[in-house]
Batch of 3 targets.
Target 1
Amino acid sequence: MKIILSKEIGFCFGVKNSVSIATKVLKENKKSVYMLGPIIHNPQVMENFKKEGVRIVDRVEEIPEKSTVITRAHGVSYSILHQALEKNLSIVDTTCPYVKKVQKIAEYLNKNNYFVVIFGDKMHPEIVSLLDIINNNALVVDKVTEIKKIKYQKKIGFISQTTKNIYNFEKLSSKLLDKTEELRIFNTICKATVERQKSVIKLARQVDIIVVIGGRKSANTSRLVEICRQQGVKTYHIETKDQMKYKWFHPEDNVGITSGASTPDWVINEVINKLKEWYN
């Protein structure tokens, strides 16, 4: 068996930044530290934070006054920040810089009377916070059929969730051309996401099987699984080494390994080591 790693694998910059900030806060705070939802979509990382004493909650109301709260990498809405300030919470913002950039662009488009169209998953935390920031003055789409339903607008601004499929973004962009006299397109899919997607396409051409390692709730991991399968390669999505099955593989296989942007190196290494134990 030959194991080939994707060129782009492990934590992206935004995740490294968020995890680093949260880890530092935990070391410096003797009192309870809260997280307003999981800062990243990786179960192993979040479990480790829980073991360190972090309390993960869904609402500001669950956090005692004057506590420290860490916001998630996916962004936080202004209304939630306002609630946190009203309770005198010490806010530690770990929002990914790329997500903040999307928020600023959305605000600009909304302020300048563009009909804002967002390529994204409606229930993803990044989109939920983004919509709140621009007072829900946007249409979230995920398919070409949804673009077709848009009525003619004088001005349209098109942006994307940072973790979406770049190729689908380009397809949807072209469909908006006949919906307006002025179209402004901002490719807000983060560079790390794009490079990871391109890298996995190259990997798919070299292997018989691809194992994608990442959280089930991770949007960027799901995109990688989708892209791998579109390339026609047998693809398995796992969160841990224990989810891998011996029967998936043959000794002569070339096996590709890739991961979502929130998958730590130690989880990836566990998967690689298990494959080596089985076949080398």
Target 2
Amino acid sequence: RRKGSEESCLFVFFAGEYSTANARKLIDEATANGFVLIQTKEVSMRPEDVKRVFQNSADDLVEWISKGPVIALELNGDGVVEACKKVANEVFSGTKVFVSDNKNTSSRDVDSFFNFADMQMGL
């Protein structure tokens, strides 16, 4: 899907009872605010994958991947990173998620995750 904006955000749900429902809810929230879903993938990760993909945030996330696969979404649109952070705090406050920290590093987050996911699919 073509990106209408230079700004994309990586939003990852870690395995839990409602991760699929939460992903759907996020898509609804995002599209209602004019953002576009570019891609989504569900993959299993090992601790070394988490360190490579999430780098500085990895230590906090390693324990969560043992619970099952993660669901990652790339959302696109001007202001999408701030909007996703707001949704993470307001809608998913009790849920373990990763959200791109700022728009300067968000495209690197997206590339790191989906390059990893594409390699997993190729194995």
Target 3
Amino acid sequence: MARLRDQLTSLSQLRYLAWRALPLGRSVTVKLRSGERLTLRPPPAEDLETAYEMFVAEVYRPPFAVRPDTTLRIVDVGANCGHSLLFWARHYPRAHLVAFEPHPVHLAMLERNLTLNTLTSRVSLHRAAAGASPGEIALLDAESRSSVVDATQGRTLRVPLVDFFEAVGDEPIDLLKMDIEGGEYSLLGDPRFARLRIRTLVMEWHRTRERPDGKAWCEQTLETLGYEVTPGIWSGEVNGLLWARPRESEARR
């Protein structure tokens, strides 16, 4: 089975092993063989898990062709600590990246990772959650991940909310990624979503109390909007990945 450690340079492997032996509370910066530099926080942060998903399992590698030379604008909703931005930047070197992330702790790590990889100039960063209207939203603050799912239970954090559709404007979106822990329904359910010119979409669906049929609802909604839906590399009972692109007869360029 592939391991994240196998993707590190020799020096980074030593740092990584030393870090695993240290007491909790310490972060470490490592370099991958593919060139990315990452600062990894210890548990309960899920940096190791997200790094594995991104750079070893490559869960965001499209199941169909997405040409790097014509992928010029990528929108990442729920950028977390920035690993997905590093993945997009390497695979789509001509793309400008637009990112949304509301959690202040994740934002600090995201900005650090962008600086480590000299990517700040390629990213337009919205320090807010993406929604259907501006304001504020309460997130369930679980230290490792922030979530709008069941945000009425446990410790919450109020963060700014921007109107996603106003923020992205009318320009075509070559690749849209959404991983917003239950916030996807307000965006997909907004009539303005149908007007977005999206060439490729990858999203994580979540089963919530309001949407116990989350996967089926997302698939049906996207198909109604004219998309061809493909399952992602993984899918569980409470969440999973979906890919979508416009059907050929309705392709929006």
